[in-house]
Amino acid sequence: MLQLRPSCECCDTDLPPESTEARICSFECTFCAPCATSKLAGKCPNCGGELVARPRRPLAKLVNNPASTERIFKPAGCAEFV
C-alpha cells in the first residue's frame, strides 16, 4: 500500500492525501508538481525513475489506511538538478 507521504522531498511543501500536485517514483519518493517538473525534469533524484502523478486514496479508506506522517526533506538531493 502506498505510504502517501505528506510533503515534497525538495521544498517541504505540504502534500495532503487528496493533493493532485503530488508526484512519486516507483520507490514512493515524493515531490510536488513544480519541483518534479522544473527542478527535476520528471526524474527522481534518488533512483533515476520517472515521476508520475500519485494516486489519491478515497477519503473513506483513509480512516483505516491513513497517510504517512513521516516527512522526508532532502533539499541537497535536489540542488544538483537546479
From TrEMBL:
Pfam families: DUF1272 (PF06906)
Domain of life: Bacteria
InterPro entries: DUF1272
Protein name: Urease-associated protein
